[in-house]
Amino acid sequence: MNAVSAYSFIASKKLTLSDPDWIRYALIGLTLGIIGLFLVLPLLTVLIEAFAKGWAAYSASLTHPDALAAMRLTLLVAVVTVPLTTVFGVSAAWAIARFDFRGKSLLITLIDLPFSVSPVIAGLIYVLIFGAQGWLGPWFSDHDIKIIFAVPGIILATLFVTFPFVARELIPLMQEIGHEEEEAALSLGASGRQTFFKVTMPNVKWGLLNGVLLCNARAMGEFGAVSVVSGHIRGLTNTLPLHVEVSYNEYDFVGSFAGASALAALAVVTLVLKTVLEWKQNQDKRLKG
Amino acid sequence: MKFTQALKHLFFTLTLLLSGTALADRTLLNVSYDPTRELYQDFNKEFIKYWKDKAGEDVNVQQSHGGGGKQTRAVIDGLEADVVTLALSYDIDQIAEKARLLPKDWQSRLPNNSLPYTSTIVFLVRKGNPKGIKNWADLVKDGVSVITPNPKTSGGARYNYLAAWAFAEKSYGSKDAAKDFVQKLYKNVPVLDSGARGSTTTFIQRGIGDVLLAWENEAFLAINELGEGKFDIVVPPVSIKAETPVAVLDKIVKKNGTQDLAEAYLQYLYSPVGQKLAAKHFYRPYQPEHASPEDLKRFPKLELFTVNEKFGGWPQAQKEHFDDGGTFDQVYAP
């Protein structure tokens, strides 16, 4: 008798502690439904459209010279911008988390600027500066240096929009960790360099990698800012996202969706990497703890 | 370090890959408006062959397409086009005036006012023309949804606007009536895309609207590529003659050392091959005798007026209708 009453007591306690089943299932169902409808279904459509005329048409449009050129350019842009943004992000985070100076909050706001400015504006400001009618444009043009409507302009615009990713990831992390460990290392005779690579880096590496991944995803996928400064020369200044638009406008739907599927594949790779990173990070924490 | 080695290797491969695309000795950049994509895809191939035969040189022609106004802006801002093939002479006037890349009298340098081909504006409607659209007056009826791009950014859209205006001014007798008419017309426009091609995809792919005001070549192309038997072309009794000029940008070809090539490129548009290709891609050729008769049969006869006749030329039309505060700004409230 006793056991039964204890059981029913626990059971009733459980009921009050967790939501009723129907709420749980309704919420799970709703979330899955929304994700399916707005995320998975469109992705599937991309694949279906890409393969609408079969595998041969799909691979032919992915290996078309213009598509290949777009992929090369997209990769080049990512390879150039991601390291630059990373270096910037680490130094900015270091400065903000470790030093106290006037205008620090202003600096943080400025780093966030690209998040709040529309990418189209980001493109336009470079046209206004480096365009033929802009401030510096005529000088560059006289020296036969092409910035706008060429690869440098595309890289500049991508840099602008990806600027905050690494810094934003690192600043709170480094502030949270504090600098006791670094001070200890320094007082034990480690050089600044040793401290950075042996103490600071291991502490922030997961956050850093995460920021780099997000930055990379954005660098490859950016459309608005790049569209403004690209000039849309096929095979030369079209990145993959622009190639998708151009093909779509040329009624080449297989080509367009094939490009979109390549971009989606890059996104999936990023997501998988991010999940792996998070899993590793948890393991890391468990080992430490 | 292994990593830096790998990075070096990567950079090297990338440069190699990128330079691989530009093996040809000289390159022309043709900056054009939206609907000419297919024409120049074909024409460039022919021209490259022709030049190889004639001069023994391998050349490359690059294309850039977009809304005409947007493309013009890009050229003024420094997109280094050797030749421009745009939707209206006003756009090239702007390049001459604002960027001084070519002399102001550019239009007299090539035959037929630098017009190797022309076009006009027609209506594309859904199969069987369910709303019974026959003429410009039908566009302002209640419940008719009209698709046309934004005249601020699209050359085709400016022709659409001026065609409707000229129709109304003639039919109803005054400028005020014409303004009322276009105001009613743009009330029936649910989306303004930035270029002609965007509007076509809105109408065809997304299924929005009852009638698309389209370049004649764009309407034919849309039917051929996407909707055999799903759409009909309706030709109004009167429409506008779309004069789509071409020009070499002197300053840029001098800088790039491509003057002879660029000039030959545009001359070749006037050759029998160029004229035939224009007609094949639904442009009305300057010298129809070079085009194949089957292609010519597809062009319906209609009464055409020019911007010069009805509006006193592009500069005036632009100022009165499309500049800030012009009639378009007055009638269009989204």
Describe this structure in words.
The complex is a heterodimer of chains A (289) and B (334). Chain A is mostly helical. Chain A has 14 helices and no strands. In chain B, the strands form two sheets. In chain B, strands 4, 5, 6, 7, 8, 10 and 11 form a seven-stranded mixed sheet that branches. In chain B, strands 2-1-3-9 form a four-stranded mixed sheet. Chain B folds into two domains: 141 residues, Periplasmic binding protein-like II (D-Maltodextrin-Binding Protein, domain 2); 156 residues, Periplasmic binding protein-like II (D-Maltodextrin-Binding Protein, domain 2). In chain B, helix 2 packs antiparallel against helix 12, helix 3 packs parallel to helix 4 and helix 6 packs across helix 7.
Question: Could you give a quick summary of the protein structure above?
Answer:
The complex is a heterodimer of chains A (289) and B (334). Chain A has 289 residues and is mostly helical.
